[in-house]
Amino acid sequence: MGCCEAQYAVDDITAMMINDIHLDPDINYENYPVPSDLINAARDDLIKKLSEKELEYANKSDYFSGKYNSASAKVISVTREWYVDQVKYQVREMFSEASEEINKTIKNKFSDPEKIKQANRDAAKFLLRGFKLPLGLPMRAYHVDKNGNIYRPKLFRRGTRA
Q1: What is the pTM of this model?
Q2: Per residue in 103-131, pLDDT tens?
Q3: Is 74 in contact with 2 (CB distance < 8 Å)?
Q4: Measured distance CA(142)–CA(152) in Å, rounded
Q5: Which of 38, 61, 102, 133 lies 20 to 30 Å from 91, alpha-carbon distance?
C-alpha cells in the first residue's frame, strides 16, 4: 500500500462518479430559463447525488473495523473521504462562482436585471406552450425576396431550364 494505492482509490471513485452521477434531465433551459438559476439547480442536483453516494465512495468499512487494518489502510480511507469532499467542494465553488458572475454581468449590463430574468422566464413559458397554427383560416404563401418584398415566381414550362 502507499501512494499508488491512494491513486487507485481516487481513480476508482472517479470511475464510480462518472458511472453514477448524471444531471437530472428536468434541469434544462425550459425549466430554468435564467442561466444562473440553471447553474444553481445543476450544482444542487450534483451535490445531492454525491452526498447520497458519499459513504459508498469513501468505502470506510474496507479499511476500518473498530480500528484501522493498518497505517496504510488509514491513509487510503482518509484519502477516499477527502477526495469525495473535495469533489463536492469544487462543484459547489465552481458552479456558485459561475452563477454569481452571470448575475453580476446582468446587473452591470442592464438597468433592471429582474426584468431580464423575468423575460427569460416568460419566453420559456411561451416556448413550452408550443406554436399553434390557426387551422381553418385561409393562409396564403407568397414568394418574397431578401428584403421581404412579394414577387410572382417565373413559371417554367416542361422541358425548359431555369
Answers
A1: 0.67
A2: 888 888 777 878 877 777 776 666 556 65
A3: no
A4: 8
A5: 61
Contacts of 51 (CB under 8 A, 6+ apart): 88
Torsions phi, psi of 49, nearest 5? -70, -35
| Sign of torsion over alpha carbons 114, 103, 34, 109 | positive
The residue whose grid cell reads 393562409 is 139
CA separation for the pair 54, 58 (Å, rounded): 6
